[in-house]
Design goal:
By secondary structure, the chain is an alpha+beta fold. It folds into two domains: 7-57 and 130-261, Vaccinia Virus protein VP39 (Rossmann fold), CATH 3.40.50.150; 282-459, Adenine-n6-DNA-methyltransferase TaqI, Chain A, domain 2, CATH 3.90.220. The longest helix has 23 residues, at 7-29. It binds S-adenosylmethionine. Belongs to the N(4)/N(6)-methyltransferase family.
């Protein structure tokens, strides 16, 4: 507290800081849904034929609220009925004002007087934090939402303290998880949750416990992919050629067992084709290649002058030529917990200031992601480029270190067997079904996807762990 500041001044400062934090969260998460997608979701929810009271817990500029109201047969100026049936929470004041304007304008178009329309709009759109402030339970039987998504690590510090104190551990890692968890908490026992979300929570291992808990009450109905370009406006900026940052899906969480079950395992949008065999994860090691930070720190060129016994030739995606690995152009500095020689330390001390925060370690000579002892450098293995037109295995010669999250390494089986497995038409078909399409015919083959691939039994003779 500043000397001389009063208690009121302090709470005003805290309030101001909270508004700044909220503005930052809105800036990152305020991605609005196009009307056709909102209408399609309300159709799927069968609103208002099924359901009496609808909530949008992150209302933005009010798109869901207006669409939900438009479907109601309301008497003119019936503020009580309109506010009973439809409600929205939003915590960013400018968005609250936008949503109220949109609701009021819609009601005025229906012949309402301006005072009645504004009274309804002010009550329908509540300036309220859905995650950190108390929310009544058991009132809404329909939740329709495009929830915000943002990782815990990105949250502004002050907001994060309260968030971590309130949101349960299994739902904390992302605002999206917290929204799903809270929605399930507040909705009526027989209510339906309609969602337009990024698909990651269905697939990530970190959201397994959240899926398991939701799965005890809900199954998943009507799930389908949406096109990120046409579903959202004001989309997040994305760099050309990189994987789209959002892969949106639309789905309904239904309390009946009529949909597909949701559980700890990844929920694939296309159910896995029936293949008689064993998941690749049961018979092989599958790892993402390590990220070692920008070039010049743990990755050096041929003329670094550093001791050869601390250097290891690397393979990056750019070193792959068709189905072969080109000779090395760069080397990785291999260090472990013992202090490296003076030349290595001097090099690191001169360059580590360029390492982004996420790559810094308490022991300064360790790379951002440990690789020693984790990759099978002593024998050949199989590399899979994560972004490719088709699932492709490439022989990784012993002694070469794959780097960069654009590569996945499969080891623990003879290379020829793995290459034959990956080339099998039944495996290719699964990979094609499960992978996300990116731009220009490219697809994304993640380590999670590779672990799920079911290897047909004909490849398994003599393979340990396969019970073939
Ligand atoms: C992805 S946008 C969706 C807006 C709108 N429902 C739509 O789909 O067009 C999410 C909105 O939730 C708001 N929001 C984020 N966290 C919130 C919270 N804890 N409480 C209330 N609103 C929040 C953001 O400000 C943002 O406007």
């Amino acid at each position: 507290m500043q000397p001389g500041a009063t208690t009121e001044q302090l709470s005003l400062d805290l309030l101001d800081q909270r508004q700044i934090d909220i503005a930052a969260i809105h800036q990152a998460t305020g991605i609005y849904t196009a009307t056709p997608e909102i209408e399609a979701l309300l159709d799927q929810l069968d609103w208002p034929a099924q359901g009496c009271r609808l909530l949008d817990p992150g209302a933005g500029n009010g798109g869901f609220l207006v669409a939900a109201l438009r479907r109601l047969d309301l008497d003119v100026n019936d503020v009580e009925e309109a506010t009973r049936r439809v409600h929205g929470y939003e915590f960013y004041r400018e968005a609250v004002a936008d949503a109220r304007r949109a609701v009021s304008a819609h009601l005025c178009e229906r012949g309402w007087t301006s005072p009645a329309a504004w009274r309804a709009a002010n009550e329908i759109v509540e300036d309220h934090d859905f995650l950190l402030s108390p929310v009544p339970t058991g009132i809404w039987d329909v939740i329709a939402a495009n929830p915000p998504y943002w990782r815990l690590a990105n949250l502004p510090a002050g907001y994060r303290i309260d968030y971590e104190a309130i949101v349960p551990a299994h739902a904390r890692a992302d605002l999206l998880y917290a929204y799903l968890d809270r929605s399930a908490d507040v909705i009526t026992r027989d209510g339906h949750i309609g969602l337009i979300t990024a698909d990651r929570w269905l697939l990530n291992s970190g959201s397994g416990e959240l899926r398991r808990r939701l799965g005890t009450r809900y199954s998943v109905a009507g799930v389908h992919r949406l096109d990120a370009e046409s579903t959202f406006y004001r989309p997040k900026t994305r760099r050309r050629g990189t994987v789209a940052r959002v892969h949106p899906v639309s789905l309904i969480l239904t309390p009946s067992r009529s949909g597909r079950p949701l559980g700890t395992e990844p929920f694939w949008l296309t159910p896995l084709p029936a293949v008689d065999g064993v998941p690749l994860r049961d018979i092989a090691e599958i790892r993402l290649a390590p990220w070692l930070g920008p070039d010049g720190i743990f990755i050096v060129g041929p003329d670094s002058g550093l001791p050869a016994e601390h250097l290891m030739p690397v393979v990056e995606p750019a070193d792959i030529d068709g189905e072969a690995v080109r000779p090395a152009r760069k080397w990785a500095l291999a260090t472990d917990t013992t202090e490296p020689p003076r030349a290595v330390l001097a090099h690191l001390d001169a360059t580590l200031h360029r390492m982004p925060k996420r790559g810094r370690r308490a022991v300064r000579w360790l790379p951002p992601e440990t690789f020693t002892g984790r990759l099978p450098l002593d024998r050949d293995a199989v590399l899979v480029p994560r972004i490719a037109r088709r699932l492709t295995g490439i022989r990784l010669p012993a002694g070469r270190l794959p780097i960069n999250h654009g590569l996945v390494v499969i080891s623990g089986l003879p290379v020829e067997s793995v290459l034959a497995m990956l080339d099998d038409p039944q495996v290719q078909a699964q990979a094609n079904d499960l992978s996300l399409g990116i731009d220009n015919g490219y697809r994304s083959f993640t380590a999670t996807l590779l672990r799920q691939l079911v290897i047909p039994r004909r490849h398994l003779t003599g393979v340990p762990g396969s019970r073939a």
